[in-house]
Amino acid sequence: MDKSQFDPEFAGSPNQNDIIVKADKVSVFYGNFLAVRDISLEVPKHNIVAFIGPSGCGKSTMLRCFNRMNDLIANTKVTGKITFHNTNLYGTKVDPISVRRKIGMVFQKPNPFPKSIYSNIAYGAGVNHYRGNMDELVERSLRRAFLWDEVKDKLSQSGLDLSGGQQQRLCIARAIALEPEILLMDEPCSALDPISTLKIEELLQELKKKYTIIIVTHNMQQAARVSDLTAFFNVETNNKGDKTGYLVEYAATKSIFENPQEQATKDYVSGRFS
Known about the structure:
CATH architecture: 3-Layer(aba) Sandwich
CATH superfamily: P-loop containing nucleotide triphosphate hydrolases
Shape: globular
Order of helices and strands: EEEHEEHEHHHHEHEHEEHH
Distance between the termini: 24 Å
Largest sheet: 6 strands, mixed
Number of strands: 10
Strand order of the largest sheet: 6-7-8-3-9-10
C-alpha cells in the first residue's frame, strides 16, 4: 500500500492542483539518531490534517519540518523533499524566515509576548514591514481568532493577563496576522480546559475556510471531531532504546477511525495498542 496516496474511500481525493504541501520520503536525523523515517504524504488546501500516534513517534518532529523549525535544533538533518506550491522548502535559495511567514506555527503551551494584547498582534506585522492600517489588522486578526469581543476594551492590557484559552487564541491571532497559508498546531489544546478546548475546535472549523491546518494531537476524539484527514504514526525501538517514528496509514479521518486498513491503526484507534 502506497502511504502517500489517499484512501480510495475518500471521495474528495484532491487532484494535484489542490495539494498545497507535500512530503516525499522525508527522514529527520538528530546527529546520527534517526528520529523520523521515510515519510510521504500530501496535504490539500483548506483541510485539517491530524497527526496521531503514541509518544515518540515523530509527530511533532514531522510537523516542524513543514516550516523548517527543526533548523533551530543543532545537528539536525532533513533528507527527502518537502514542497510548498511545488517549491522545495529546503532549496539552497529558500529563506527559512520567509517560509515561516507563509507557514505559521502555534505551540502546545500558549506563549504570548510579555506585551499588550494589541502589541502581540502588531509586533510581528511591524517587524515584517506591514504597510496597511495596523488597527484594522489587529481587529481583523482577533476577530478571526474569535477573541475580539472578549478583549476589544482592554487592548492595552498584557496578553499574559488572559486566561489560558484566551492566550492560545491570541497566539493564533498573532500567527494569522502575517497572513500565512498554512497553520501548524502542536497539541494546541493539551494545556486547556474542556470549555477552552471546545472554543479552539470551533475556531479551527472557521479557520480552515481560509487556511490549511496541520495539527498534532494525542486526543483521538479531537482528531475525529475536527480533522478531514488523519495520519497515524507509529514508533519502533532499537536494541539501544532509540525510537524512530514512521507513517503507518494516512487517509480520510472517517476511514482511519471506522475502516482502517492496517492492523496497527485498528489497534491504536480501538485502544488495544500496547
